[in-house]
Specification:
2 domains, five-stranded mixed beta sheet, 300 residues, Nucleotidyltransferase, domain 5, 11 strands
Length: 300
């Protein structure tokens, strides 16, 4: 059965077209990603901003044409929205416009459901679910989930860039404050981590993780198969953080392996990923290019 899903996040909009049977994604026919920054300014204003809305509508119209070519109707696409939609006071108005203009019907998922579905969709072939903790670092929130429990906290690359990393390049004071606030938020996860085995493997998903893996490999073109072979350590991530900290946004954009539109928020994402490994005591980190868009199709 040919199905499609759209995952609309704070920073990105993802489209997956795949053959699905008995809860398994058997063959991927199309996997698309666009950085639309729908959550721009939401942390401060609690409203989706006009320019962000227009960027997102343009992306969704492009996706509508793609799925039409595949013979799928907009109303049959499984559409989910995450952190920015939970936070924005005009979210309902925006999604009503999307449905009226484009035919996509979005469901705003809770942090708990986002964690569960991301876990389901992120595991790679032959991975044992009970041995892995999926960490989904988004633009507005980060989800932590195992087979037994899921958590979601308001810790994201866009949210923390807008709050704390405002200079270019950033100042030592901004870096120090941001690092302290990340560590403070992660205190909420200490009990969660203590309830998991000490040798639990961390599996990082979403754009921060895949971009850092791509940069680590110096990939000129994104290659999911190569990215999913990467295993990062806390030392690797600390080194990346120190390098990104010294660069301007323009210098980050010129780095081989870094998506230019993600350059401005990548430092905050890298800091979050590094501190998760340090504070929650994960020995290493595997990478998955999959995630929520897979999980919602598997959960049909």
């Amino acid at each position: 059965m040919l199905k499609a899903s759209i995952d609309l996040g704070t920073n990105t909009c993802l489209l997956l077209i795949a053959e699905v049977e008995s809860g398994c994604v058997n063959m991927v026919l199309g996997d698309y990603a666009r950085i639309i920054r729908l959550g721009e300014g939401v942390d401060k204003t609690r409203y989706l901003q006009p320019e962000a809305i227009e960027r997102t509508l343009k992306c969704l119209d492009e996706y509508r044409k793609i799925i039409s070519t595949a013979g799928i109707l907009p109303g049959d696409v499984i559409c989910v929205a995450t952190s920015q939609a939970r936070d924005a006071e005009n979210g309902s108005e925006f999604f009503a416009r999307v449905e009226a203009d484009l035919g996509f019907v979005f469901r705003v998922v809770s942090g708990k459901d986002e964690a569960r579905l991301s876990f389901k969709g992120s595991l790679l072939p032959n991975m044992e679910a009970s041995n892995h903790a999926v960490v989904d670092i988004g633009g507005g929130s980060t989800e932590f989930v195992t087979t037994n429990e899921g958590r979601s906290i308001d810790l994201g690359s866009v949210r923390f860039t807008e709050r704390y990393l405002k200079s270019d390049p950033i100042t030592d004071e901004e870096f120090s404050i941001c690092l302290k606030e990340i560590d403070n938020k992660l205190e909420e996860l200490v009990d969660w981590r203590s309830a998991t085995p000490s040798d639990m493997q961390m599996l990082a998903v979403a754009g921060t993780a895949t971009t850092l893996a791509s940069w680590h490999l110096r990939l000129r073109e994104f290659d999911a198969a190569e990215v999913e072979k990467v295993q990062l350590t806390s030392v690797d991530l600390h080194r990346m953080v120190e390098e990104l900290k010294r660069m301007t946004v323009s210098e980050r954009r010129d780095q081989v392996g870094i998506e230019p539109k993600r350059a401005d928020v990548l430092l905050a994402g890298a800091m979050i990923m590094w501190r998760i490994m340090e504070k929650l005591k994960f020995q290493n980190c595997n990478i998955s290019s999959r995630g929520l868009r897979y999980g919602v199709l598997m959960d049909l």
